[in-house]
Write a structure and sequence with these properties.
Largest sheet: 6 strands, mixed
Strand order of the largest sheet: 1-10-13-9-8-6
Low-confidence stretches: 1-22
Distance between the termini: 31 Å
Number of helices: 26
Shape: globular
Strand content: 5-15%
CATH topology of one domain: Glutathione S-transferase Yfyf (Class Pi), Chain A, domain 2
């Protein structure tokens, strides 16, 4: 559940031609309207063959190289901000957009050959991006303008400062030989990062069970496409998140739950543990050469937390503060297991948590997640979410006939301002699982909004890749309540991209510090817990007049708070695993046992996992969110604070005035100013942790 920003090259598979459909909007008409508004709505050009992938990547690098060479060759006496920093942002922005398309192809193409070539070209693109930091001719030109201190706007000066900071962080101040070594190591790191991600995407873990073994697992799972096999058994793919979750929450057999959990915790172990060890050493080596004590210090310098110690302190303080609640929740689940199994000395294992949590929700809070799915048919939920976001942000979404899609079922929508009808951007939806596709849920930015050389504004484009349960022969796709939370979250990233209106690519909405980038989306998760919001779309698919009762919504909130200790400590486990392996000196990194040490964090912070498992091998955030996972929790505290403004507004979570303020003060400004300032302008006050404590159920 995250924003996918890693540039991991791979390509969109064979694109399926789609004819014009009368019920859909006309893309060309929107593009013409965009031109009238001095904007450009240009879809990415997706490669259709492996050869086109290579050609597009090669051409993007050649075009950028030629433009940068021309920039660097300018007469030094005639340099301006526009001909240097602004031009460089535009040139690199073009290359970045090409790489984002190839990265998305890598994660979504149905064709293995396309994915393979896209990954291959992505390594080359990443090497190009690393090399850019070491072009001395370009550095000299930019430094000359920066040192001259021309009179600039705040937005322009911020761009200059960030460019020069990035050069310092790349090692441009180092002696030539040391600088060359850092460049070489960074290229190795880029290639290994891609390899780590590719190994995760390739990991498979099929497990076949009899119907008797799957007692308790809902019929909606058993009847889903691809589950029942020719021999009468039922196949669970432990690498598919919703498969694993269905078993973890519902299978009565502890042995079945254990087997699926074990298989998931062993995914990519053989391929990725060696890669991860190399990654940790490489990162520590680079950090040391650049003058940082650890990779965490290097990575976090540009974020809200500023250094690794602050991030660790934040996480550990929450571990301590949640201990009483966590211990009480653990004992509640243990007693439930003891009563269920007839064993007074029962112990809660890692594969028991989801099952007994689900049982607790049903028995104590009368919350039956499986029955709740009847209220969340996918299409109605999607349309309901659209209506909410259109209302609070002042937007209009129109589905259009795309010129092509990369797989059957992919949809394209254009976003407009509801008052002016001005096009704001476009997004793709790719919502159901298929073989070879990205396994989780994420927003993949394809174009970042920016001012082009001619003065027009290029509108943002994004793709949402999800893996919700596919519809069956006799039922629509029915979502769990947590699926709905995920949908609201991930589409929040789409909104962040669509509403950003920064002039420069480097200051777009997604370019905010990584420990803030999740906050605008996490904030929107709160809508799913509000009765007034749910009543706008949640209804029994068999009887649309039937809404979720108020007492059920209240029970959902009480149940969430009753299990928030476990949920948060699990998040803190992931964050501390990440920080622990990136808060090492080079010498310590060389002797660090990634599996043993990460499993030890599980034992200390949440629950022990089997000793022969390697969760970290399938922990995809270590490729792109390295030393950054703490940011989910950091951002969540901010997100709950921001959501409290809606909660206390006259119109509640549907308040349009507050929504417009959020759009203008947070989404639109992106990284053009400090995000702390943006948050406080939206809040109208200083930040507070109290709303988060209330959310968790911890009172003063």
């Amino acid at each position: 559940m995250h924003l996918f920003l890693r540039v991991a090259g791979v390509a969109f598979g064979l694109l399926v031609s789609v004819g014009g459909q009368a019920a859909l909007g006309d893309l060309a008409a929107f593009q013409a309207a965009a031109v009238q508004g001095k904007t450009e709505l240009r879809l990415p050009v997706y490669p259709l063959t492996p050869e086109e992938i290579k050609a597009q990547a090669t051409q993007a690098m050649a075009t950028a190289d030629a433009a940068l060479a021309k920039l660097a060759a300018q007469d030094g006496s005639r340099l301006t901000f526009a001909t240097t920093f602004a031009a460089c942002d535009a040139i690199v922005g073009g290359l970045t957009q090409a790489s984002l398309v190839i990265a998305t192809v890598a994660e979504s193409s149905p064709e293995a050959a396309m994915r393979d070539v896209a990954n291959e070209m992505n390594v080359k693109l990443q090497e190009w991006i690393v090399s850019l930091d070491y072009r001395e001719d370009l550095y000299r030109v930019l430094k000359q303008v920066a040192d001259a201190r021309p009179k600039l706007s705040a937005e322009e000066q911020r761009l200059v400062d960030e460019f020069m900071r990035n050069y310092r962080r790349a090692g441009l101040a180092l002696p030539a030989a040391e600088r060359a070594e850092v460049e070489k190591l960074r290229k190795e790191l880029a290639a290994l990062t891609t390899e780590f991600a590719v190994n995760i995407n390739a990991a498979r873990a099929p497990l076949d069970f009899t119907v008797e073994e799957l007692a308790g697992v809902p019929e909606s799972f058993l009847s889903s496409p691809g589950i029942k096999q020719a021999d009468g058994k039922y196949r669970v793919m432990a690498n598919v998140t919703w498969h694993a979750t269905a078993i973890a929450e519902n299978a009565e057999s502890a042995e079945v739950r254990r087997r699926v959990s074990l298989a998931r915790l062993q995914l990519a172990r053989d391929t990725n543990v060696p890669v991860l060890k190399k990654l940790i050493v490489l990162r520590a080596n680079i950090a040391k050469r650049l003058g940082y004590a650890t990779w965490a210090d290097f990575q976090i310098e540009t974020r809200m937390a500023k250094n690794g110690a602050t991030a660790v302190k934040f996480e550990e303080a929450l571990v301590t503060g949640l201990q009483p609640k966590f211990a009480a929740e653990q004992e509640t689940l243990r007693k439930l297991k003891a009563a269920h199994t007839g064993k007074p000395d029962a112990v809660i294992e890692s594969w028991d948590v989801a099952y007994y949590t689900n049982k607790l929700l049903k028995e104590r809070y009368a919350v039956d997640g499986e029955k709740l799915r009847d209220f969340f048919p996918y299409q109605a939920t999607l349309e309901g979410m659209f209506a909410i976001y259109q209302k609070i942000f002042g937007l209009k979404f129109t589905e259009v006939a795309p010129p092509y899609v990369w797989a059957p079922g992919v949809q394209l929508y254009v976003v407009q301002d509801s008052t002016t009808s001005t096009p704001m951007g476009a997004f793709y939806l790719d919502m159901f699982p298929r073989d070879g596709k990205f396994n989780h849920f994420a927003c993949f930015p394809l174009k970042t909004g920016r001012v082009l050389a001619g003065g027009s504004y290029e509108l943002p484009i994004a793709a949402l890749l999800c893996n919700f349960p596919a519809p069956s022969a006799d039922k629509p796709s029915l979502l769990k309540q947590n699926d709905v939370v995920t949908l609201f979250h991930e589409f929040g990233h789409v909104m962040h991209g669509m509403l950003s209106r920064s002039k420069f690519m480097m200051q777009g909405g997604f370019m905010v510090p990584q420990d803030f980038v999740e906050a605008p989306s996490q904030m929107l998760e709160n809508w799913v817990w509000d009765k007034a919001v749910l009543d706008t779309f949640a209804a029994d698919y068999r009887d649309p007049a039937k809404k979720i009762p108020a007492e059920t919504v209240a029970a959902l909130i009480a149940a969430r708070q009753a299990t928030e200790g476990f949920a948060t400590r699990r998040q803190l486990t992931f964050g501390l695993i990440d920080l622990s392996m990136h808060s090492l000196s080079l010498e310590a990194a060389e002797n660090y046992d990634v599996v043993a040490q990460s499993n030890a964090v599980f034992s200390r912070v949440s629950l022990a996992v089997p000793a022969d498992t390697a969760f970290v091998a399938y922990f995809g955030h270590l490729a792109g969110y390295d030393a950054g996972y703490y940011g989910y929790q950091w951002a969540k505290v901010l997100a709950i604070d921001m959501a409290s403004v809606f909660k206390n507004a006259p119109g509640g979570f549907l308040d349009e005035k507050v929504g417009r303020r959020l759009r203008d003060e947070v989404y639109a400004v992106g990284h053009t100013r400090d995000v702390g300032e943006s948050v406080e302008k939206f809040l109208g006050r200083a930040r507070s942790q109290q709303p988060y404590l209330d959310y968790v159920g911890i009172k003063k």
